[in-house]
Amino acid sequence: MPRHPDPDLEQRILDAASRLWARGGEKALTMRAVAKAAGTTTPTVYERYHDRDDILRSLRLQTRRELFAALSSTRTLRESVQQYLEFALSHRHSYEVLFDGTGRPPSIHEPWPSFNLMRGRVANRVGGTPRQHTRLMLALWSLMHGTALLIIRGDFGETLRIQTVHACLDTFEAIVDAAARPKGLPHSGPKWPSSLILGEGKQSRVEDSNGRKSKTKSTTRKVAR
Question: Distance (Å, rounded) from C-alpha 17 to C-alpha 9?
Fold first, then answer.
């Protein structure tokens, strides 16, 4: 009898890849290891994904869609922060993969829908356009991400976890309130350069220390099998 395609296979592959990456990083994520963890064969994995980078890209995009869907159900900034943290703590493996290398290609040139959603809400609260608040959103994002990883990697118990989440929520609100005041927030260091654009897909760009713009294609890496 003909074999029927497994509708859950691609999701099992992505789930397996996220677990392997979270446990051992790049060295642990080989196509053979993914196949074994997903309960399939290496050729079958190659039929669906070209290489390891293809798996990681699919996982990033899927996680971004899921995170955006979770945040879209909220109405206020505080609710969106709380939902962000809940998502990260409930999807710890895929969340950790999502932010590995996020500031360089190809991730930098992929859609960042949750970043844009929250940046837009910050602009609505503070005033001005979303792009004017990219630096502020970067600080808020660092706060949320740092909180999530501290709880995940620190293996926080329930009481400490609750206190840490609420400390993040209160600090987030305090920062946004301060930014909305006439004097705004203090700004140390150089002015935000016009060449540094985040969260706008293919239009996003960064510069290295020599002022060279990032390329839209990632450097080819040897794929472990």
Answer: 12
Distance, in Å, from the CA atom of 184 to the CA atom of 136, rounded to the nearest integer, reads 11
Please report the pLDDT score of residue 132 as a whole number.
Answer: 94
pTM over 0.90: no
From 66-75, 76-85, 105-114, 162-171, the region with the lowest mean pLDDT: 105-114
Q: Name every residue whose Cβ is closer than 8 Å to that of residue 117 and which is 6 or more positions away in sequence.
A: 68, 71, 72, 80
CA distance 210 to 11: 41
Residue 147: closest CA among 86, 102, 85, 192? 85
Q: Does residue 182 surpass a pLDDT of 80?
A: yes
Neighbour-count burial for 35-45, b at 16+ CB within 10 Å, e otherwise: bebbebeeeeb
Architecture of domain 8-49: Orthogonal Bundle (1.10)
- CB burial of 1-17 (b: ≥16 within 10 Å; e: otherwise) equals eeeeeeeebbeebbbbb
Q: Which of 110, 205, 128 is nearest to 136 (CA)?
A: 128
In angstroms, the CA 117 to CA 72 distance is 8
CATH hierarchy code of domain 61-203: 1.10.357
Q: How many residues does the chain have?
A: 225
For the record, the structure tokens of 20 come out as 């392997």
Peptide linkage before 106 cis (omega within 30 of 0): yes
What is the distance between the alpha carbons of residues 206 and 218, in angstroms, rounded to a whole number?
14
Residue 85 is which amino acid?
Answer: L
Give the C-alpha separation, 55 to 12, whole Å: 11
